[in-house]
Automatic annotation (TrEMBL):
Substrate binds at S9, K41, T73, R87. Reversibly transfers an adenylyl group from ATP to 4'-phosphopantetheine, yielding dephospho-CoA (dPCoA) and pyrophosphate. The gene is coaD. NCBIfam families: coaD_prev_kdtB (TIGR01510), cyt_tran_rel (TIGR00125). It is an enzyme of class 2 (transferase). Signal peptide: none annotated. Keywords: ATP-binding, Coenzyme A biosynthesis, Cytoplasm, Magnesium, Nucleotide-binding, Nucleotidyltransferase, Transferase. This is Phosphopantetheine adenylyltransferase. Homohexamer.
């Protein structure tokens, strides 16, 4: 069974995230959208809200599961016996950052390799980031065109 973990904070999930999952869905038997918790980070939306946003967004996708974890993504993958990490790339700086993490993860897994699969975000969604959406929300701006319907609060 080909299972991938799509990790992130998803604070909130955006149409860019949706684009990646929708396009990756036929490539894997299951995609686990795994919300990472970082005790150092201040979130706009609670873990429960983010889980609900994602579950509602992907309710018509039978091969999508939503979960959460603390710690390293690679440890979470190991605990779930997952061999693939799914990541979206918006621009060249994303690639450089994600490449370093992917190479580190391969080293950390030794003989039990976990491969990182990169998908380019569609050009029409490449400018969207959760941090931009949070900024727009904090100033009562029109963020609705950047997020799935489930996030419109």
């Amino acid at each position: 069974m080909r299972v991938a973990v799509f990790p992130g904070s998803f604070d909130p999930i955006t149409l860019g995230h949706y684009d990646i999952v929708e396009r990756a869905s036929p490539l894997f038997d299951k995609i686990i959208i795994a919300i990472g918790q970082n005790s150092q980070k201040k979130y706009m939306f609670s873990l429960e809200q983010r889980i609900n946003f994602i579950k509602k967004t992907f309710e018509k996708f039978p091969n999508i599961e939503v979960d959460h974890f603390e710690g390293l993504t690679i440890d979470y993958c190991r605990s779930r016996d997952v061999k693939f990490i799914l990541r979206g790339l918006r621009n060249p700086s994303d690639f450089e950052f994600e490449k370093a993490i992917a190479q580190t993860n391969r080293e950390l897994t030794h003989n039990n390799k976990v491969e990182t699969i990169f998908l380019l975000t569609s050009a029409s969604k490449a400018f969207i980031s959760s941090s931009i959406v949070r900024e727009i929300i904090s100033f009562n701006g029109n963020y609705e065109l950047l997020v799935p319907d489930s996030v419109r609060v």
